[in-house]
Design a protein that fits this description.
By secondary structure, the protein is α+β, with helices and mostly antiparallel strands. Helices cover 40% and strands 21% of the residues. It is built from 26 helices and 31 strands. The protein has an eight-stranded mixed sheet, with no helix packed on it. A hairpin with a 5-residue loop joins strand 2 and strand 3. Helix 2 crosses helix 3 (320-339), helix 15 (693-711) packs parallel to helix 17 (731-742) and helix 18 runs antiparallel to helix 19 (764-775). The protein starts with 8 loop residues before the first strand and ends with a helix. The structure holds arginine and zinc ion. The site of arginine has 15 residues, from strand 20 and helix 2. Belongs to the peptidase M1 family.
Length: 890
């Protein structure tokens, strides 16, 4: 907790450390009340640093002893304050011995060393290692680590750390020890230890090179029946990185450990990944298809960090996207490759873009907007954002779009060739791509330095006489905090042209020589937009085409393009690019939703029998097309979410949007009831549950059909949902049925909710689902959420539980959260303030829920500002929350 105003740190101020650390040896005496840590490190002075002091960071620590080359450092030899230990007159080569004491049981921040359900865990990224010992805790300081853990043998039978186990044994007096050595140099944020009562599933796995490695998934006893999917995902990840990028696992042993109290998804500590249980534990009884997919991608993500993050790491935290954007890109490609089919890849792409639009576009348009490589931060933990991760991934994807898959691979190879074992920058990555591809990518740098979502406007002209077609692309980017004016980006825009039969036309650009040979003309072309405005001329265009622009979402931009309803329906039915087929349907739906929302705002009644013609016809065509992949259908038949619609409006009216979305869903349900019933019946997946993409896709469409049918809220619909609930043999079907019931007026809904809790109260992850489902249900108001907080199973201390109820309500139930009386905002402020003292990181995430307060009607704005100001005025606000709130109010 601070007392002063937190200071920003600037990228331009980066200076190399005055000392490098070569080796680190640590001894832990683990005790939940008071753990002692003895650290010995050898350091060498950096060139040009003569006369400079040695700066070590430490937080919430007691300094027990400090020795330099064996001699106690006197009071005049150092200063200690504000989390900095500065030592003076340090020789060029030095051995430092530091002893610290800390209190894991009292550590509710879940950073550094903490306990969870009686076991010890660590989380050191970004700056948690300084809560364990005083250290140059910055990612450019890389050292080798040897760690001895000592603890009570009965209470902590398992002792794990990074690397290889080189020794273990008894200490007498009921205690034992283990020594771990990590042969690879690493920054302190990749340090980890785990100790406690855990069991593992293990397998030996043969790498392509023939070398055998030991794979382990560690969990609490009783969860061993839920580790198989994580283990399979790990093996798939290892194989994929060998095949796609030629990257091999470099350790003899790779461990994943699940912990129930965790701030984020998971952490890539070298050889000892620590995971939120949510991304490890699965069996058909407790996990949904989405959970299975999430586990696969997070296991992949953390594993892929071993090369992109660990072997090559970040010079400083401004470069965070260097590892995160790249690793998200890699996990997205991994999941897509595992599905294997073209339509499966498209489905994955659509899902990823949905996340980007739902979460990153709003961030990029709000007060916390920041570049993929930020220029400053107050609290680095606030920068583990969708911009760093998801937009960062889009930036990496654009290299692949510009250079081709082979060119991208060459760039990756060069990146590792140049930088293995180093801590580097986003510029180094871009240079590797540019040099390997023989391309000038200097303008591309703007994707890293400029925040905001660019807009690309499309205008077209067909000249029948000349048989030519012109596409004019014009780009702009709105101002963002600290960046009023933007330079033009280098934007790859993939286009295709459809003829009147819906087929792709061969594309011949006027500027391309000898492009007349139609047999080799491509049907998708990447236009490179680098100027504010550019016109591209296509020739030999036999008839006026319908353009398909930004295929596969080739750049993270907003596309302004005018289509008629008929053209959108045509694209939805014919575009060879599945992403744009989906996109056309979403545009059609969005247009209708915005028009209806306008009507509601003007006090017009929505006609219950309105014939949803254009949209209804398009939906009917999709729903009845048996050739379509069910997973694709599910996405195509899902209306844009309330928050995505909100993003399109100048003044957001959450209740109007909610009303319209429901109205449209009902209209589509009643117009297509028979087709929904058919889809429901024909996408059943009888037999044993399997989470494979085909079965999951069928369940997805079936459960979407169920949700539409239950919108009609009649006896037959209720019966269908109730019977699915009663007979489900897997969590996907069970929770879908429960959600349908709870969002209806079905007579059995309360009984179903109660029985669900009884059946699953031993399964923390399912209890999270139970809270979350209620938090997002349409009848749940602020009072009901406050009531749920009194449930014995609720706790603010556990991040998953806090997220399941409070975040789900504030972020996932906009119509209730934005209650006109402001009660939602008061609730929000209460919880931010309560969480602030328990866990600043989690509190700061929740603090982001009022980010876009300036987009609402003035009466709501006033109430939101009051809530923000109440939080701002709170005593001992963490710098995490302080940064978010002050930027929101700025
Ligand atoms: N590097 C981790 C990942 O991407 C995220 C850890 C972030 N943790 C934090 N406390 N900020 O998988
Ligand atoms: Zn990551």
């Amino acid at each position: 907790m601070r007392t002063d105003t937190p200071q920003a740190i600037y990228r331009k101020d980066y200076t190399p450390p005055s000392y490098w650390v070569n080796t680190v040896e640590m001894g832990f005496d683990l005790d939940p009340d008071l753990t002692r840590v003895a650290t010995r490190m050898t350091l060498s002075r950096n060139i040009g640093s003569r006369g400079k002091s040695l700066v070590l960071y430490g937080e919430s620590l007691e300094l027990v002893q400090l020795r330099m080359n064996g001699k106690e450092v006197g009071k005049r030899g150092y200063t200690l304050g504000n989390g900095v230990l500065e030592i003076f007159n340090v020789p060029a080569e030095v051995t430092l011995d530091i002893e610290t004491a800390l209190r894991p049981n009292q550590n509710t921040s879940l950073m550094g060393l903490y306990t969870s359900n009686g076991n010890f865990f660590t989380q050191c990224e970004a700056e948690g290692f300084r809560k364990i010992t005083f250290f140059p805790d910055r990612p450019d300081v890389m050292a080798t680590y040897k760690v001895m853990l000592r603890a009570d043998k009965d209470k902590y039978p398992v002792l794990l750390s990074n690397g290889n186990l080189i020794e273990e044994g008894d200490l007498g007096d009921g205690r034992h020890y283990a020594v771990w050595e990590d042969p690879f140099k690493k920054p302190s944020y990749l340090f980890a230890l785990v100790a406690g009562q855990l069991v593992c599933q293990e397998e030996t796995y043969k790498l392509q090179s023939g070398r055998e490695v030991l794979l382990q998934v560690w969990v609490e006893e009783g969860n061993l029946d839920k580790t198989q999917h994580a283990m399979d995902s790990l093996k798939n990840s290892i194989r994929w990185d060998e095949e796609r990028f030629g990257l091999e696992l470099d350790l003899d042993r790779f461990m994943i450990v699940a912990v129930g109290d965790f701030n984020m998804g998971a952490m890539e500590n070298k050889g000892l990944n620590i995971f939120n249980t949510k991304f490890v534990l699965a069996n058909p009884r407790i996990a949904t298809d989405a959970d299975y997919a999430g586990i696969e991608s997070v296991v992949g993500h953390e594993y892929f960090h071993n090369w992109t993050g660990n072997r090559v790491t970040c010079r400083d935290w401004f470069q965070l996207s260097l590892k995160e954007g790249l690793t998200v890109f890699r996990d997205q490609e991994f999941s897509a490759d595992l599905i294997g089919t073209d339509s499966g890849r498209a489905v994955k792409r659509i899902e990823d873009v949905r996340v980007l639009r739902q979460a990153q576009f709003p961030e990029d348009a709000g007060p916390m907007a920041h570049p993929v490589r930020p220029d400053s931060y107050v609290e680095i933990n606030n920068f583990y954002t969708v911009t760093i991760y998801e937009k960062g991934s889009e930036v990496v994807r654009m290299y692949q779009t510009l250079l081709g898959r082979d060119g991208f691979r060459k760039g990756m190879d060069l990146y590792f060739q140049r930088h293995d074992g180093q801590a580097v920058t986003c510029d180094d990555f871009r240079a590797a791509m540019a040099d390997a591809g023989g391309r000038d990518l200097s303008q591309f740098e703007l994707w890293y330095s400029q925040a905001g979502t660019p807009r690309v406007k499309v205008e077209t002209r067909y000249d029948e006489v000349a048989q030519s077609y012109m596409i004019t692309l014009t780009q702009s980017c709105p101002p963002t905090p600290g960046q009023p004016n933007k330079l033009p980006f280098h934007i790859p825009v993939a286009v295709g042209l459809l003829d009147s039969g819906g087929r792709d036309m061969p594309l011949v650009l006027d500027s391309v020589e000898g492009g007349d040979d139609r047999s080799v003309a491509p049907t998708t072309m990447v236009l490179e937009l680098t100027e504010p405005s550019q016109t591209f001329h296509f020739r030999n265009v036999r008839e006026e085409p319908v353009p398909s622009v930004l295929r596969n979402f080739s750049a993270p931009v907003i596309l302004d393009i005018e289509y008629t309803d008929a053209q959108l329906a045509f694209l939805m039915a014919n575009d060879s690019d599945a992403f744009n087929r989906w996109e056309a349907g979403q545009r059609l739906a969005m247009r209708r939703m915005l028009a209806l929302t306008e009507a509601v705002k003007n006090g017009e009644a929505l006609d219950r029998n309105a014939d949803e013609n254009a949209l209804g016809a398009a939906f009917r065509a999709t729903l009845t097309d048996n050739a379509l992949d069910p997973a694709f259908c599910e996405l195509a038949l899902t209306l844009p979410s309330e928050s995505v619609v909100a993003e399109q409006m100048d003044v957001v009216h959450p209740q109007a949007i909610h009303q319209v979305r429901r109205f449209l869903r009902r209209a589509l349900a009643s117009a297509l009831r028979f087709q929904w019933e058919v889809a429901y019946q024909s996408n059943r997946t009888p037999g044993a549950y399997s989470p494979d993409p085909v079965s999951a896709g069928k369940r997805g469409l079936k459960n979407l059909a169920l949700s539409y049918i239950v919108e009609l809220d009649d006896g037959d619909a209720h019966k269908l949902a109730q019977s699915q609930y009663d007979n489900a043999n897997n969590m996907t079907d069970r929770i879908a049925a429960l959600s349908a019931l709870v969002n209806s007026n079905a007579p059995g809904k309360d009984a179903a909710l109660a029985s669900f809790y009884e059946d699953f109260k031993q399964e923390a992850l399912v209890v999270d689902k139970w809270f979350s489902l209620q938090a997002m249900a349409r009848h749940t108001d602020v009072a009901a959420v406050r009531e749920l907080m009194n449930h014995p199973a609720f706790s603010l201390r556990n991040p998953n539980r806090a997220r399941s109820l409070i975040f789900s309500f504030c972020n996932g139930n906009p119509a209730q959260f934005h209650a006109p009386d402001g009660s939602g905002y008061e609730f929000w402020a209460d919880q931010v303030i309560a969480l602030n003292t328990i866990n600043p990181q989690v509190a700061a995430r929740l603090a982001r829920s009022l980010d876009r307060w300036r987009k609402y009607a003035p009466e709501l704005q006033d109430r939101m500002r009051a809530a923000l100001q109440r939080v701002a005025a709170t005593k001992s606000l963490s710098k995490d929350v302080h940064e978010v709130i002050s930027k929101s109010l700025a």
